[in-house]
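Posting for a labmate who doesn't have an account.
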Amino acid sequence: MTHLTFDELPRLVFELQEKIDRLTVLLEDIAENNMPAKDIWFDIDQLSSYLPNHPSKKTLYKKVEERIIPFHRREDGKTLYFLKAEIDLYLKEGRQKTTKEIVAEVDELLSKGGRQKRK
C-alpha cells in the first residue's frame, strides 16, 4: 500500500463516495428489476472452503452420493459444480433427509397400510 498524505485525503474521499454512489445505483436497479445477482459457481475445493465447517472432499462426495447437498454435473458425468445460491439455501433450510431415511419412511408407511395416525 502506498503512503498517503493529508493533502490527498479530500480527493480519495471524493473518489470513494463516487464509487459508493455507483454501487448504490446498481443495487437499487437490481432490487427494482428483480434481477438476480450473477451466479457464482464452486468446484468441490471452493465449496469446502466456503462451508462453515470446511468439510473434506471425501465428506462432500458422500453428501453428493446420498443427494444431501445440491449439485450439478456436466455432460462428462465426472465434474461436480455447486451453485452458491443453492448452497446458501441448503444451509438456511438445515439438514435434508437422506435417500435412506426417505425410503425407510415410505417402507414404514406402506407397512401400516398407507395410513398414518392423526394427532
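Reply:
Got it, the C-alpha cells are right above this. The first strand starts at residue 41 and ends at 42.
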